[in-house]
Every structure is written in C-alpha cells, then in structure tokens.
Amino acid sequence: MKIRDITNYLEEIAPLHYQEDYDNSGLLTGNLEDDAEGVLITLDCTEEVVNEAINKKFNLIVAHHPLIFNPLKKITGSNFVERTLIKALKNNIAIYSIHTNLDNVYNGVNSKIAEKLDLINCEILLPKNKLVKQLVVYCPPTHSDALKEAMLDNGAGTFKNYDHCSFSIYGQGTFRPKKGSSPFIGDIGVEHRSEEIRLEFFIKKGFENSLIKVMKDNHPYEQIAYQMYTLDNISDDVGAGMIGELSNEIESDKFLKIIKDKMQTSCIRYTSLLKKKIKYVAICGGSGSFLLEQAKNKKADIFISSDFKYHEFFNSDGKIIIADIGHFESEQFTKELIYDFLSKKFTKFAVQLSNVNTNPINYL
Hints:
- The protein has 11 helices and 15 strands.
- The chain is of the alpha/beta class.
- It folds into 3 domains: 3-99 and 333-353, Udp-n-acetylmuramoylalanyl-d-glutamate--2,6- Diaminopimelate Ligase, Chain: A, domain 1 (3-Layer(aba) Sandwich); 109-127 and 238-325, NIF3 (NGG1p interacting factor 3)-like (Udp-n-acetylmuramoylalanyl-d-glutamate--2,6- Diaminopimelate Ligase, Chain: A, domain 1, 3-Layer(aba) Sandwich); 132-232, Alpha-Beta Plaits.
- The strands form 3 sheets. Strands 5-10-12-13-14-11 form a 6-stranded mixed sheet.
- Helix 2 runs parallel beside helix 3 (80-90).
- The longest helix has 13 residues, at 141-153.
C-alpha cells in the first residue's frame, strides 16, 4: 500500500478544498508513491513525535495541525518547526495535515465533541456556500443522451440527497467553420445552423477538471462551448462549528462540571451563568470566537470553544454563556476520530495513536 492510498482516503472524508483559505492541509513532506509502513496519529507534529515514528519504524505522521503554517524562507533548524522538518526529511517520514477541512465536515472534529457531550439533533453552525457549481454545455441531439449519461455516471448532477440531476432545453446554434477546422457537421466557410441541446449539471467543487475531461471525451464537437458557474447554494453538511441539544435540560453549573469531566480539561474560563438551565449547546473545536454571533443567533444557551481574548468575553452581551475550555482540550479527541477512520478502512495495517502529549500549556 502506498502513502497515496491513505491520503486519498482521508481526502474522501475531508476534501482539501473544504479547508479555509489561510490553512495548509495536505501532504507537507514525503512522497505519495512511497510504500506506507505505518501511520502515527497526533494533534501536533513535534520533534518528539517524529522520534516516536522513527522508533516505531513508521513513515507517515497524520497530524491535525499543520506543522508548516506560515511561509518558510529558510530551514536551518533555528526553531522547532525547522528542526522537526529536518528530522522528518532525514528519516524519510511523510507528514500529512488534516486541519480545517476536517473541522468543516459534518462527521468531523465538532461531531466528535458533540458525541462526547451527548448532544442530539446536531447541525452545522455556519454552513458554507459556493461549494456547488453548474456546468452548461451545448450538444447536438444525436449525442446528448450519451453525453448526459456519461456525465451523470461520473458524478455530475449530485446535489445534497439527490443524484442524476440535470436540465435540458432545445435551441438553435450557429457557427461558421474557418479554414483549418474539422467540423463535426457543416462546411468550411459556410454558416451552419443546427438544433442543439443545452445541458446543465450540478458539479461539486473539486471535481471540475475530471468532469470537464469526461465531457470532452464524450462530445462530438472539435471545439466545445461550455460555461462553469459558481452557485451561492448553502451546503448544510459542510461548515464551521456545530449546534445541538441535550436530551434534557441541565442546570448550568452542573453542565460546566460535565464539560470539565467529558472534555478532560482542568480549567474552564466562562462568563456569567445567566442561563439557569442549558438545553441548546453550540461548539467549535479550536479557535471559535468568530462564531459567537452565529451561536447567539441560533439561540444557543452556551458556546463551548477556545482562544477567547479578554475583551471578547464581553461580547456574550448577556445573551449566551461562553465557555473557553482550551485549544488542545477542545481538539484532543480528533486523534481518536482520525484513528477510527483509518483503522476501520485499513484493518490489516499498523495505525497507532501517538503517546506524546503535545499540549504546550500547563496549568497550576
């Protein structure tokens, strides 16, 4: 099995185009064509984690956080990022990051937190849009059915819980073949009019190139007129954060203790317990302050996340409880999530959780 087989599977679960613009998910070091000798899963990739991979004779590290996040102008070993990279490269260890793309899928990071807190009826807190495109192409009636079938069989026309979605309309096309062309119909230098069918398909972002190839392989024209549009449709199963509910209301002070226990954190920074009982819970693994207004709009009683700055706590504005449980603590179970994905898919392959605690923060 190649490293590519593992990364391809991870990208089926969390496509790279789901990541945020600032992110750097994907393969950071290594060769996709190398044989995979074992996968070590970690939240952060550090020198100690690379040493663990070396000792286990594993050549692939899957980390949630990207080791390379900011641009590097040199690699001299002057900081932990550079030293970790040098050690990985010297020992032929591939490092793969699955970060905000895993945050943004429904069964990703936030779903794992919801599972830990026993939340039900969960939905994405801030769904993404512009993940669906529309392909429009013109084709003679003699070939339209074959073209449509080929497109639909290769994944075009998928929209939420439906597939094989398409639209067709008849019209008249005109063109005049110029010298040097090889027209499917018509004569050089003579304007030709013919019946054509306008075919429209939904296209998932990330599949544009492969489906354009299918279109070209199954279209009779020498030069094909087509358009690709980005749609504003909201994708309910992709986006930031999550909101769910408790099966029964729980007193707020008691729920804080449940959070502390279930999320295995020694410290929760929280605002005034203005809500006596908790029913609706918004969550975001990692830095989630950007979702506070969305959590308030969704009428959440409490928002559980991390990395709130002092002045941002005032933004609860008497409408919601903010509970900052720590960045590492909010995402620590992501390791389990990735392990479950890989161990169930590759049942006869070595997949292990790192034993290294990469949390850089200590509490007294």
